[in-house]
Amino acid sequence: MTGNTTMIRNARNRLSGVSVAKGLVLVLWAVCLPYAAAVEVDLARELDPPVDRQTYFDTFPDRLKPLWLAALAHRESDLRREVAEQIIRAHRAGMDGTQVFVEPLSEIVSDAKEHRLARLAAARALIELEAKSQSVALAQAAAELGLDGASLIEPSLAAWGNDAMKAAWRERLKQPPPSRRSLILAIRAVKSQTDDRALEALWELLDGNRYANDIEVRIETAFALAEIQTTGNEEKAIRRYRAHSESLAERLLAANLLVRHRGERTEGVLLEMAHDRAPAIAVVALRRLRALDARLPAEVSEPISSSHDTSLRFLSLEFDEAEASTAGVARIAKLLADRHPQIRSLAGDALIRLDVQESLSESVREQSSEVLHGDLPRGIEFAALVLGSLDHEPSADRFLDLLDHEDAEVRVAAAWGLRKLAVGATAEPIFQRVVANAEWLDE
Fold it and tell me: Of 30, 31, 21, which Cα lies nearest the Cα of 436?
């Protein structure tokens, strides 16, 4: 079934440009051949003539490394910059032995007289090569190359777990930095390293007056606190949430404090936040509940399934598939007609996966058939793709009727569905339609 779960988006993407008459010919072609349960939509235009796919791969001349090493030692800064950029590209393309460039690149990074663009390029190359041994040189360059250098280097040093700048990052949280961007870099760094010695300074940033009106700094701070302090914030979060019921920013901060928490108390607080009138807050709470594999009560599931917010409907789909109930199947089937194309596609994939469960198969087919017999073109189109991929032969008559639908994409989906079902009784009606629409064959 793994292949079948990609059926909806594959069929939708690859059939959209096929004319109705040609779609009918493809149906006839399929009916005349022995039926095989395919997971890919195979169109005649892709099979005739057959095209062998070429395999491309990168090779590197033997003299390239010595040439680049010589160029890195050249007096021209711009040449050294270009070589550093080419080393990055070569490493990503799979060149072996790129560690030979680490020392000369580090010399460029450490040279205060070098042009800053060359130093930045060399630093970028060292980061690409994961040259953790050069962390001290990189930390010094981050301090000398201004905000550009700090933005490039500091996140990598933090991700590497390097201690070279830990003290500097903590100090930056306490004292007004040269720029708010520098402060955000420090917040992200202590978050990346889960530095619990920064907790006091982070809480001061969140609750103090210095950045009371700077929501970006405070949101970043809440992210860091959630990552570092993964227990014990429930009461602080719920107090903040309830005390600032009219403040979107404060409620959002409260929700983000819990994005790494778990437990019964956490789930209770998040469920309260999931009812929030602001989708941005409900999404934060629901994403965490989904990560905890929590089940939603009906009073939450129903509203988010029909919400005007796309993110909430995405989450509704995930919860309903995980719940694997007949009520969830009904909500997913309604999303086959969703105004967002990716939700329609994912809803179809989910129904195909749920059909594997014997207890849900009948519900999946009934709900999909109800949409197929409805009057919403996008719902009809995706229901046809679902039922065709599930080999639901009772849909064959409806597929025949849909060949006259006013919507071209519905007609093509119906034609594909007939081809997929390959019901013998539909061969004659299909043939008659092909004959009636065969004028283009004489062109």
Answer: 21
Report helix angle 326-334 to 341-354, nearest 10: 150
Which residues are within 8 A (CB) of 219 and not within 5 positions of it... i.e. 6 or more apart?
252, 253, 256
Task: State which H helix or E strand residue 349 sits in.
Answer: helix 341-354
Read off φ and ψ for residue 53, nearest 5 degrees: -75, 130
Write 341-348 long-range contacts (CB < 8 A, 24+). Answer: 341/12, 343/310, 343/313, 343/314, 343/317, 344/8, 344/378, 344/379, 344/382, 345/8, 345/9, 345/12, 345/382, 346/8, 346/314, 346/317, 347/317, 347/382, 348/7, 348/8, 348/382, 348/385, 348/386
Is the backbone peptide bond immediately before 429 cis, with ω within 30 degrees of 0?
no
Which of 319, 281, 314, 284 lies closest to 300 in space, CA to CA? 319
Distance of CA 424 to the CA centre of its chain: 42
The answer to whether 181 touches 152, Cβ cutoff 8 Å, is no
What sections of 197-246 are H helices per DSSP? Answer: 199-207, 215-228, 234-243
- Give the whole-angstrom CA distance, residue 199 versus residue 115: 38
Instruction: Please state the φ and ψ torsions of residue 407, each to the nearest 5 degrees.
Output: -90, 125
Which residue in the block uniquely carries the two structure tokens 């061969």?
Answer: 427
CB distance 20 to 437 below 8 Å: yes
Q: What is the pLDDT along the chain (443 residues), one digit of tens a residue?
A: 445 555 445 544 444 444 433 333 333 333 333 333 333 555 656 667 777 776 666 778 889 999 999 999 999 999 999 999 999 999 999 898 999 999 999 999 999 999 999 999 999 999 999 999 999 999 999 999 999 999 999 999 999 998 889 999 999 999 877 789 999 999 999 999 999 999 999 999 999 988 999 999 999 999 999 999 999 999 999 999 999 989 999 999 999 999 999 999 999 999 999 999 999 999 999 999 999 999 999 889 999 999 999 999 999 999 999 999 999 999 999 999 999 999 999 999 999 999 999 999 999 999 999 999 999 999 999 999 999 999 999 999 999 999 999 999 999 899 889 988 989 999 999 888 888 777 665 55
User: Could you give the C-alpha distances from 344 to 190, 335, 349, 351, 381, in angstroms and in order?
Assistant: 40, 6, 9, 11, 10
